[in-house]
Design a protein that fits this description.
Elements: E1 4-8, H1 12-23, E2 28-32, H2 35-45, E3 49-53, H3 61-71, E4 77-81, H4 86-94, E5 99-102, H5 107-128, H6 136-150, E6 155-158, H7 165-176, E7 183-187, H8 193-201, H9 218-221, E8 226-230, H10 240-249, E9 251-252, E10 261-262, E11 266-271, H11 275-280, H12 286-292, E12 295-298, H13 309-323, E13 330-331, H14 333-341, H15 347-361, E14 366-367, H16 374-377, H17 388-409, H18 414-421, H19 425-435
Parallel strand pairs: 1-2, 1-3, 3-4, 4-5, 6-11, 6-12, 7-8, 8-11, 13-14
Antiparallel strand pairs: 9-10
């Protein structure tokens, strides 16, 4: 589904020009001649980006922006303004407008700005879905998710366990179909092989022992939305031809049924297995692989995006403090350094579990390194088999050196030293006590 752009502009020629410019690359465009009509259309159509003139009868651009802030705060809002009112446009950006354009409008600039607004919206949507991160590799993933949402083709999400494949599937669904349409997940290896066909396609009464009534399958339940096939690599080879037929023909026949039912679903699959290798070994149908892999999203392991670890850790700390009604915790710099050194074979799921346990164990208001498991603090993983003790020693030795240096430079004033180090005074006092640092000024 193409992005929807709403234009609110009282000047007919300008409105028509913007419609033509934005429809050229394939956007769906609707327009209104004043603010009140624009808001009515906004409620009904729910556009992805809104362009609004500043000066209009009935309701001006700032009033439309106020409506947006109260009702659709995540929709990018671009203000159209005359050159003489640029100061007002800048003020509007402080109130939440994405950007502004001065008249006369440059066609290329309009397209560029709308594209940036859509990309920013997609990134925000993925973070709202729990896909946290602003590293270059994650920015690329945000863009790919937005692209995957625009196509009706199947999407294959690959990556190690714990990297967030299901969250990504939900993000694609939300950007494509909206929150009100169904999202149905089928965990292929968790369902017995003899029941999986019924789970996917449904069955008719009497089709097998225990089929006491008709039952709709996952394809039918997901009609108009998204069907997420988790761990698709575990799908039995005998069932793959029927899945291929359903994906290609958009029709399903229940077990024991004689008539096919048409369904319109977006297929999103996920796997941590090498499907291409399985195809070469005859364990997975090549035609089904190509059909499911029309567009692939590769989830990066956490060790390849270490710059996101701080943001992820703080996100989980905040979430678990709220869940367990605990005072908000501050992540200690040393604990963060340990988290950033570890290689995370369990990826984000492992980080989440460790943060949850630490939050439950913490008795103060600082999330310190001693709340982390020994395996983490020692830095021993499958990816880092040696020199872990040396890394750990250097890490903590470096911290002690920095603390002493900051204290010396601040005349051993702990408040000033803590500010210089970017930590709280309580954290500094804890570290001073831990390392046995004395206030000997020589």
């Amino acid at each position: 589904m193409n992005a929807r752009i709403l234009i609110i502009e009282d000047e007919a020629r300008m409105r028509r020009l913007l419609e033509l410019v934005l429809r050229e690359p394939g956007y769906e465009v609707q327009s209104a001649a004043d603010g009140k009509a624009g808001i009515l259309l906004w409620k009904k159509w729910q556009p992805n980006v809104v362009l609004s003139d500043m000066k209009m009868p009935e309701m001006n651009g700032l009033e439309v922006l106020s409506y947006r802030n109260s009702n659709f705060p995540d929709t990018p809002f671009i203000l159209l303004t005359a050159f003489g009112t640029v100061e007002t446009a800048v003020a509007a950006m402080k109130e939440g407008a994405f950007d502004y354009l001065t008249k006369p409008i440059d066609n290329n600039l309009v397209l560029e700005l709308v594209a940036r607004a859509l990309a920013a919206s997609a990134a925000r949507a993925t973070e709202n879905a729990g896909i946290i991160g602003s590293s270059p590799i994650m920015k690329k993933l945000h863009q790919e998710i937005a692209m995957a949402a625009k196509t009706t083709n199947s999407v294959l999400i690959t990556g190690e366990s714990g990297t967030g494949k299901e969250l990504t599937a939900k993000a694609v669904h939300a950007a494509c179909s909206g929150q009100d349409s169904p999202f149905i997940r089928v965990n292929c290896p968790a369902i017995p092989k003899d029941l999986l066909e019924s789970e996917l396609f449904g069955h008719r009464r009497g089709a097998f022992t225990g089929a006491i009534e008709d039952r709709a399958g996952a394809f039918t339940a997901a009609n108009g939305g998204t069907l997420f096939l988790d761990e698709i690599g575990d799908l039995p080879l005998s069932l793959q031809p029927k899945l291929l037929h359903a994906v290609e023909q958009k029709q399903v026949t229940p077990v024991g049924g004689t008539y096919a039912q048409t369904v319109h679903v977006k297929i999103v699959s996920a796997t941590n297995r090498d499907l291409e290798g399985m195809v070469n070994n005859g364990e997975f149908r090549q035609d089904l692989y190509y059909r499911l892999n029309a567009l692939q999203l590769q989830m990066p392991p956490l060790r390849q995006r270490r710059e996101d670890i701080e943001k992820l850790a703080n996100y989980f700390i905040q979430a678990f403090c709220h869940q367990y009604n605990k005072t908000p915790l501050q992540l200690d710099n040393t604990a963060l350094a340990v988290l950033q050194t570890y290689d995370w074979p369990g990826n984000i799921r492992e980080l989440r579990n460790i943060i949850e346990r630490g939050c439950l164990q913490c008795r103060g208001n600082i999330f310190t390194a001693d709340l982390l498991p020994t395996a983490i603090t020692r830095g021993k993983t499958d990816y880092q088999e040696k020199n872990s003790s040396e890394i750990n020693f250097n890490l903590f030795g470096r911290e002690q050196e920095l603390i002493i240096k900051a204290l010396q430079e601040c005349g051993w004033n702990q408040s000033r030293a803590a500010l210089k180090l970017g930590i709280t005074r309580n954290t500094l006092r804890y570290r001073v006590k831990k390392y046995g640092i004395t206030t000997i000024r020589d």
